[in-house]
Write a structure and sequence with these properties.
Elements (H helix, E strand, L loop, with lengths): L25 E3 L1 H7 L6 E14 L5 E11 L4 E3 L1 H9 L9 H16 L4 E5 L1 H7 L8 E2 L19 E19 L6 E15 L1 H9 L8 H16 L3 E8 L5 E8 L14
Parallel strand pairs: 6-7
Antiparallel strand pairs: 1-4, 2-3, 2-10, 3-5, 7-8, 8-9, 9-10
Length: about 270
């Protein structure tokens, strides 16, 4: 696991309710990728959803919105999630003439902090469900397979090919748990693995995903490790890995890595 002791993470925090872009804490992606990930092997994004966005209009009336933030995986840095929450909270007592004006400020700040253009979409509460209804992709769930395991740190040796037949399928598990590398708080996710190539052994894949249960790293790095391990061990012709993490602190983070598609499918998982 990468060492983040040189950042502001985990230290006593003061809370500001006045807009302050300096609260954003970028963490270079190379810090974790140096250990085990070949970033050249994938494309994709980190899709964040923020449910606690509020500001004041010019008349002093509070406004609320739900926000989506799309960071390309090629950006120089990720944004540490606590700093992102503090940044969003800093808008609470600041005045903005419109939701559009607020989104432009957010777009500029996040682009500057991450080192790449960030897409920002703010939704009125009433319109969000129309754009992002709860749904599930057509996937084969692995969670009821009769496997036994006592391995709770990532073990890529579980990843093996099954029958020597070609497959074109999406496999999923709702059992993924990883842990914050600073606070050790658990992060829960559903993970969807879509691939084409020789069929992956499903029991081994499930045990591999469960082996992250005590692993400490950020969401983005966990998904990149899953992607890289599957590519190295199973060598599919095409591969996409998409984790929908549960909300914590009003934010959910949903990393997507793929050999073929830049953007993930549009759906919102039931636990979100």
């Amino acid at each position: 696991m990468a060492d983040y002791s040189d950042t502001e993470l985990g230290r006593e925090t003061s809370y500001s309710d006045q807009y302050d872009a300096s609260l954003l804490d970028p963490i270079p992606r190379t810090k974790a990728r140096e250990e085990s990930t070949d970033a050249a092997a994938f494309i994709g994004v980190d899709l964040w959803t923020a449910f606690e966005i509020s500001w004041l209009n010019n008349d002093g009336l509070p406004q609320v919105a739900i926000g989506e933030f799309i960071f390309p995986c090629t950006s120089d840095a990720i944004i540490e999630s606590k700093s992102f929450k503090l940044y969003l909270n800093s808008f609470n007592q600041s005045h903005f003439p419109s939701m559009e004006a607020l989104s432009e400020i957010m777009r500029a700040d996040l682009t500057a902090a991450s080192g790449s253009t960030v897409d920002v979409i703010l939704y009125q509460i009433g319109e969000y469900n129309g754009f992002k209804p709860i749904s599930e992709p057509d996937a084969i769930c692995l969670d009821q397979r009769p496997v036994a395991t006592d391995t709770y740190e990532p073990d890529a040796s579980f990843l093996q090919l099954g029958n020597q037949i070609e497959a074109d399928e999406t496999l999923c598990s709702h059992l993924l748990r990883t842990n914050c590398p600073v606070t050790d708080q658990p992060d829960w996710a559903s993970v969807y693995i879509t691939y084409k190539g020789a069929q992956i052994d499903r029991d081994g894949l499930l045990k591999y995903l469960v082996s992250f249960r005590q692993h400490q790293d950020f969401h983005e790095q966990c998904v990149e490790k899953i992607f890289s391990d599957i590519m190295a061990r199973c060598q599919p012709a095409e591969l996409s890995v998409y984790a929908r993490y549960m909300r914590r602190g009003g934010l959910d983070i949903n990393p997507y890595r793929s050999t073929v598609y830049k953007m993930p499918p549009a759906y919102r998982q039931v636990r979100q």
